Amino acid sequence: MLAWKMLKREFKSGDVMTLVIALVLSVGTVTGIGLFVDRLQKSFEIGAANLLAADRVISSDEPIVPLWQEQALDQKLNTANRVSFSSMLFSDAGLQLGQISAVSAAYPLRDSYLADTELFGTGVKTNAGPKSGEIWLSSRLASLLDVTLGAEVDVGEATFTVTQYLVRDPGSTGSVFSIAPRAIINLDDLAKTEVIIPGSRVRYHLLLSGEQQNLLDYDEWITPKLTDGIRLRTPKQRGERVGETISRAESFLLLAGTLAVALSGVAMALASSRYVKRHLIQFAVMKTMGATPKRLTRLTLYQLTILFLIGAVIGLLLGFLIQFVIGLLLQDLMAVELPSPDIQKLWLGVATGFVSLVAFCVPLMARLIQVTPLSVLNPSAPFQGNALFIYVAGLVGMYLLMFIYTGGFALPSIMFLSIAIIAVVISGLGYLLFRFGRARTQGATTGWQIGLASLYRRLLSNLFQLLVFTVILMLGLILYGIQANLISDWQKQLPENTPNHYLFNVLDDQVEGISSLANKYDIPISNWYPMVRGRVIEIKGIGVKEIYPRRADEPDLVEREINLTWADDTGAGSHILSGVFSSEGISIESQVAKEVNVTLGDELTLDIGGIQQTYPITSIREVDWSSMQPNFYIILPKAALSQFSANFVSSVFLTPATAPNFYKGMAEYPTVSMLNVGDLLKQIQAIVNQLSNALQLVLFFILSAGALVLVASIRVTLDERLEEGAILRTLGANKKLVRQALLVEFGALGFFAGCIASLTAEISLIALQIVLFKQDVTLHPLIWVLGPVVGTIIVTIIGVFASRAVLKVPPIKLLRAF
Fold it and tell me: Residue 177: its pLDDT value, please?
């Protein structure tokens, strides 16, 4: 086959190899990201169903209507029941408030319990729950009650025997401020406890599982019957916010991958340009020998098809490797094991390769078909092609890929505009630097002068290289700054004695004792805030469901029950922006006020313990969440909540010296929970590190694509460089001088890129410090060192390697060729 024979010869030239590598990078990067996100999405869907312990859950403040469960059974669905409530548990050693679930024998319908016979064991999967008369306690609850297996525990009027330590209940959820030690009993024993009385805070759940169509039919039947206080939850609804977050993450990663695709596309275009330039005479000769445009078109398409198949196959294999490595880097963040990748998702990588080939190679390859036989007689005559069409085709191709990745026009448009602005700024700075270098190299005779002069002589090519490597280095430095400095800088700037432990689930009669304990050891303690749970049900007299028909659109203020408090002033960590803190209305945090579009004088209706009350907004507060003081979205008048039983919350600052005494004293208050902020920050830092590692993998492929562009651009100008080297060496310059000129040219290019990257990365990190962390500006001196050093080393190595022919080929051979 002629097309294959021609390609085999061309692989040795390097141009076709550059094109294939660029195609492999394009397909591999997008395939890897697409497969990983698909696995993440699937694992989340599985995890969401497991977190619900069912495919559907109906939750209500009142007992579930028996007809609803009968209807589910009639529609061939599996059912289970669960009742959740808080109650005191009593043992011979003491008492403890716990979160108890009474479950039916069929529970859970999805996932499994984890239970163990060893205290704080890792657990063994089991689908069989406690039998009648048995209770399973979390290891923490068993420790607080000082009981072991076989001991007896009282709940209300019933006595239970501890038979297992509960490691995980698949359907249990809770916020930070509702963390409580857990226990489960058999549903048949609930009535014996006599703990459910009118006014008790209890939640009833009907769990369903079965075939998807049967579930959808049941959804249609039950939805009209749902009223306020009753919710139908599905894995999809439960995960709408996380699902949208995953979707946004996919768009972000693919857009980041688009940079690698764009650079690979440029490399493909440069390689194709050189390939076309070298083969114009060959195709002209073939036309003189009788080859028709149709035959040449077919030959070119065969070659492109072969290249596409080679690049696509290798790229898909690379994509599988990329998604595996990303999954490995992020495995500690996954709640469930990632499922296998879906081969149906390979189409995105294949489509990327095809669009890239069509946009960046086909317009250039078309020049070969358009060449005239007269080119054989005048090979030096420039070929007239439509350059504008080629550029437009590349831009349209990239925009099309971004549209495919994001499913909309907004993000691609913003990214195009951002790239244009960055390109103008960096190109302007680069032009000034190159112009400055040229002004210092008039009458160049030394290697460093010749090298600096080369930057300006190939101005457009070098400006593009400067843009590429500046952006790559900037992204790398920003990731480094976030991973290594940002959180630690924030911690260092916290005021002295900033609270580092939260205390919650504190009863009214425990407040004085804990305050005395803190004062005894000179431990700073924040104000105590009473806290109850409530829900915003109306805004300005309009129901929340009417304002936000899609649950995923609900802001935090109305999406769930929130913590409410009452106070006589705003307390530490917040201050009034507008209005007056009054006993006649409520005070609302400024950001959530913007989210729900309310201002002074507007009214909110709250449901607290089944009692609905409407309050006007009399003040808007700005809250400093980094103060580590207890703060709330809404503060109500004291009279509004005085009728409700509340838990209290506060925070303390513990040092290594005071912590042991405080922990020992807190053993007298086993119902109180403490959250160590330091441990939480360590978890956040670990998450940031792992996410940074995953992004660095994407950045590596962007860097690879950038290196490929540099190599391809050098190959495009290789004939010019060879000619310059031959002339210099003929005029008496030795190989050392030519090598020095190359080192200076590429070293200066990398150095300038690193300097500009350090500047832009520092500006970006400062913006994050000010906007995100609300902290004072801290400079990062190491970034100013890393940028120029890393840029100089990387660009010099790649540039000199790609230009090595200038040093190897004898001048006499070059002069004969020219």
Answer: 38
